[in-house]
Write a structure and sequence with these properties.
InterPro entries: KH_dom-like_a/b, OsmC/Ohr_fam, OsmC/Ohrsf. With 132 residues, the chain is α+β, with helices and mostly antiparallel strands. It has three helices and six strands. The protein is globular and about 50 Å long. 18% of the residues are buried.
């Protein structure tokens, strides 16, 4: 996998993925676009959500919605890395099995989500879930 990030102006950068997609990032605290750290957080939420939805569908669960709400703690001084990340999954569907929801959310962070597993090497990763 490859990507390219090109400086536009000020602290704005254009990220281009190998698959041909682009995203603007704003290094000045997210004034005009997501900051790079927000992109990392959204990547963790997106990657883990894929695992949760796929896991539930593979188990023949009638999942209709999944939202990952991410919260973090960061160091106060540079480098301002994440020290803790929590992903709270809100899952909706028809007759969802609570035990399966608990299992797929846990398995995502501990076994499958590439982004979370990378972050977990230096960040305390936790999760919670609810069926709405």
């Amino acid at each position: 996998m490859q990507a390219e990030v090109k400086w536009i102006e000020g602290f704005k950068f254009l990220g281009q993925s190998q698959s041909g997609h682009s995203i603007v990032m704003d290094g000045s605290g997210g004034e005009t676009a997501p900051s790079p750290m927000e992109m990392v957080l959204m990547a963790a939420g997106g990657c883990s959500s894929v695992d949760v939805v796929d896991g539930l569908k593979s188990a023949n669960q009638d999942v209709t919605d999944c939202t990952a709400k991410l919260t973090t703690e960061r160091r106060e001084t540079a480098p301002r890395i994440f020290t803790e990340v929590n992903i709270h999954f809100v899952v909706s569907g028809n007759n969802l099995d609570e035990a399966l929801v608990a299992k797929v959310t846990k398995d995502s962070l501990e076994k499958y989500c590439s982004v979370c597993l990378m972050l977990g090497e230096g960040v305390k990763m936790t999760h919670s879930w609810e069926i709405a």
